[in-house]
Fold:
Amino acid sequence: MSNTPNTIQNLIIHQLHKEPNGPARVALSTAEMPINSAAQRLVDHLCQLYGTRNGKGFGKFEEDEHEYPMPALVRRYLDDANFLTFSQQLLAHLQVRAEQEPEANGGYVLIARVQNAAMDFVFVALVSEVIGTAVNGEMQVEDSIHLDMDHLRVAGRIDLGVWQAGGERYVSFLRGRGDVAAYFKLFLGCNDMVTPLKETQKLVKGLEQFVEQQALSAQDRDEVFQRAHSLLDEMGNDQGEVNLADVASQIFPDAPQALQDVLQHEDLGLVDGFVPDRRAIKPLMRFKAAAPEWKLEFDRASLRSGAVIYDKHTDTLVLSNIPDKLKKALLEQ
Structure:
């Protein structure tokens, strides 16, 4: 998504005032922001940053719309197209949730409706401000307050197309740490869904994509898969939860960031915090295939040992070291 042009349909920024262990209050904008080049750069940067961040949670809306009003608010907005009212209602709800979390901090709340070739979504981000240094027109140094976009900690996104189509994973949010992320999850009304089997399958898919992109030799590819299998098998046995940064550093220590970038790419939709399902890691060590007239499964290492030979010119597989039981059965046919 980071390379997909964004079309901003609506954009507004409000402010949430909140100090840790203090009350929350809001300062509301009275009009939407004009979509100029500065606004476009801001939204593009935040969307790109959000897309490349790992540690996101995924899910769908909670069913209790009285306790979790987000779906009702979004539905009403889509019906009446009043983005200003919608954004102000979101801020009132965010204020309530922030009041419930003592450690929550305030900041500028950006709310946008964005469309691109990949999705149509509502994006909400809480961005803090920092003091930098600038040189004014008189060549004097002075303080300059600006948005601290590179340290985005609180943000979420609602994929309107998937939601309206009845999908299961259309809400996402940055997990962050502790209760701070939890209050924003409650604000979004997200029922966080992590299915270990599906997440492990996506992790295996990401590893396969990585070794293909890196154009690794057969031996190097096998070593990556073996390290991954050993690590994930141990984590599954010990009920250890996946952290993508840690996993990448252990599986591919020579360039862990390259692997992490693949695993956390939003097209893969992989999340942290799940215990690997050991059933799903078998493809790392074994090939399994089927055709109308046969089924076949063998270790990847057998291609290196010569026990299985694939001849691409004749499109045939040759199996060696046939066990006696199988030989006897074949001879009886």
